[in-house]
Amino acid sequence: MESTMELWLQKANVLIEALPYIQRFHGKTIVVKYGGSAMVEHELKKSVIRDVALLKLVGFRPIIVHGGGKDVTKWIHRLGLETKFVNGLRVTDQETMEVAEMVLNKINKGLVSMMEKVGLKAVGISGKDGTVLKVRKKLADGQDIGFVGEVKEVNTSLLNTLLENDFIPVICPVGSDDEYHSYNINADDAACAIAKAVKAAKLAFLTDIEGVYRDPLDKSSLISELSVPEAKEFLKSGGASGGMLPKLQNCIDAIEAGVSRVHILDGRIEHCLLLEFFTNKGIGTAIIGDQEERYYQSEK
Predict the structure, then answer these.
(1) What's the N-to-C CA distance of the chain in angstroms?
(2) Would you list the DSSP string of 199-255?
(3) Is 59 annotated as a binding residue?
(4) Nearest residue to 285 via CA among 241, 226, 201
(5) Which stretches make up the Aspartate/glutamate/uridylate kinase domain (predicted)?
(6) pLDDT tens by residue, 3-23
C-alpha cells in the first residue's frame, strides 16, 4: 500500500510540475518541426501524435511542419533516378521535384490520419496552398541545384484561419516562386520561417540527437539552456559542426524575430515534447531570448 501511495504521489507531482508551463503557454501558438527517426518508427510516431494531442487539449495551438527526406530518397532509388547532394542540399531537377512532392504529400496525409484517429482536428497542406510559403531559388555556393527554394515570405492567412477554427495545420515543405513553380524547402528552414511569421511562443526541432553538447564526445556536457549571446559565442568558438550549425543559426534567427523559446530535442525518446515542455529539467537544449526567464538558474 505504501509503494502504491508513493506512485500516486509521484504522478501528482508530475502534474503539479507541469501546471505553470500549461498556464504560461495556454492559448499560445507553437511550431513543431517533425523529422528524423520519430517519423520512421511506428511507436515513436504514435508517441509524437499523442504528445501533440495532449498539447492541444491543454490549450496549446500546435502547427506541425514535417520533413521526409529519407522517404524521398527511397522512392527516387525505386524509380531508378540518381540522388546528388551539394553541401547537404539535394540537387532537384523537375523529375526529382515531382517525386519529392508526391512523397511529401503522402506523408502529410498519413500524419493527418493518425491525428484524426486520436480525436484531433487536423488539416494537411503544402506550402503552396494559400501561398503559405513563397520562395526564391536557393544556390549552393553559387551553384544552381534546381528546384530548391529558400523562404522569402510566409502568408499566415490560411494558418490563422485554421488555428482560429480549432484545426492543427500539418505542413509539408514545398513552396512556390513568383511563377508558381514548385520548390523543395529544407524542413528546418520552413519551420523557422513559419514560427517567425506567426510569432510562435515555442519552436521545437525533433532530431536524432539529444541536443547541443559543449563537447560532442562527452554525453555529460549537454547544455540545457543557451541565451542568444551564448549561442552566438558557441557558434563562433567552433563548438557546433555539421548539421548543428544551420540548426543553431535557425534557432537564433527565430528568437531574434520574436519566438520566445526554441527547443532542440531527441525525437527518439518517447514523449520528448512533454518531457521538454512540462518538466523543470527538460531533456534537450532550449535557446531563449535575453528577456526570457531561465528555468535552470541553479545549474548556471
Answers:
(1) 40
(2) T-SEEEEEESS-S-BSSTT-GGGB-SEEEHHHHHHHHHTT---TTHHHHHHHHHHHH
(3) no
(4) 226
(5) 28-266
(6) 777 777 777 777 788 888 888
